[in-house]
Design brief:
Elements lengths: L10 H12 L9 H15 L8 H17 L1 H40 L5 H26 L4 H26 L25 H15 L7 H19 L7 H20 L4 H34 L6 H4 L7 H7 L1 H9 L1
Helix pairs in contact: 1-2, 2-3, 2-6, 3-6, 3-10, 4-5, 4-6, 6-10, 7-9, 7-10
Length: 339
């Protein structure tokens, strides 16, 4: 590890520094945040860190990795499995229902003697079919415990409190008097000052941008082909003068702006906070690559053997309901018998 830092002080000096940090004065009261800060300093002293390594910077990195492993990775895997249940259990059921629902709606409209032009009747038919399928899809999402809103919100909701809490903690530790001002790391002259070179803030922005742009690195040929077809469909609609909203492009553009904004903000905060942010972003990038590669292998396996992976195994259940069997028909029954 590249580091420029003062030699480690003796145990008594380290203890006196911690006492100085937590000593009461007329302008400061002991709070729970002070207790956590003291605990962090004790942890940096207790860990068997090699003498040549900067103790506080190393502890910041280790705490970041540990918090992400405990609070981020499990929920990300949980969300990924919920997403797979939605894609491989719920959506096939909905697609299998579509022809039957379409015929049922057509028969109902015939009985009701719905009148109008061909375009009007088709639009009314499509609207009714969409409403029925949307309702059934929501019911199936709830039945299989894979509602998209919950799947998307839980991972960031579990990560955000830890991210904000640790950022506040390290910002608090950078306030004088603090032992952080006696340690340097990489381009940081001390952990209490901003990065004078801007290297770590720029690294933070680049890592964040890489996390945004790497979504296309692990895409199957079938997925790329579907994207080309969707792009052609969008171009045809634009040629007819229709408005086409592209939420994915809007989100990506917003995240690119966030990458630039993180550089600006990181250039104004203490070095210990920037170090935490860079470590967290780097961990998040590696996590994204691993999950995307996992997803890539799964899709390749499904494309190669679409009928050899039972839905019950993917959904995490050892059985399927009779309603699912009725919707899937004889071929799905045969698949279950084979398993």
């Amino acid at each position: 590890m590249l580091a420029r830092h003062a030699s480690r002080t003796t145990h008594s000096l380290r203890t006196s520094q911690r006492q100085l940090l937590s000593a009461p004065c007329s302008h400061r009261t002991i709070t729970s945040l002070d207790a956590v800060a003291d605990g962090f300093l004790d942890l940096a002293t207790a860990l068997p860190i090699p003498p040549s390594w900067p103790p506080y910077s190393t502890t910041i990195i280790l705490c970041t990795v540990f918090s992400r492993l405990v609070l981020t990775v499990p929920f990300s895997i949980w969300a990924k499995r919920r997403q797979w249940r939605a894609e491989e259990v719920v959506m096939p059921i909905v697609r299998s229902m579509a022809p039957k629902v379409s015929r049922s709606v057509s028969e109902q409209m015939t009985r009701e003697r719905v009148h109008g032009t061909k375009e009007q009747i088709q639009a009314a038919h499509n609207k009714r079919v969409k409403e029925i399928l949307t309702k059934q899809r929501k019911l199936l999402f709830a039945e299989h415990r894979c509602q998209p809103a919950v799947t998307m919100l839980i991972p960031p909701a579990t990560q955000l409190p830890a991210f904000v809490g640790l950022s506040i903690l390290f910002s608090h530790l950078s306030q004088a008097p603090t032992p952080f001002d006696s340690e340097s790391f990489f381009t940081l002259s001390t952990l209490t000052h901003v990065d004078p070179t801007g290297a770590l803030p720029i690294a933070l922005g680049l890592v964040t941008l890489a996390n945004v742009e790497s979504s296309r690195w692990f895409m199957t040929d079938a997925h790329l082909k579907r994207e080309e077809q969707v792009q052609q469909w969008k171009e045809q609609r634009l040629a007819r003068g229709e408005t086409v909203l592209e939420p994915q492009k809007i989100v990506k553009s917003s995240l690119r702006l966030v990458s630039v904004g993180r550089i600006v903000i990181a250039s104004m905060v203490p070095g210990c906070v920037v170090l935490y942010w860079v470590t967290s972003a780097a961990f998040g990038l590696v996590q994204t690559w691993l999950l995307d590669y996992w997803e890539f292998r799964r899709k390749r396996k499904l494309e190669a053997h679409p009928l050899q992976m039972p839905l019950g195994e993917i959904s995490g259940h050892g059985h399927r309901s009779s309603k699912d069997l009725q919707l899937y028909g004889p071929r799905k029954r045969a698949s279950k018998a084979a398993t």
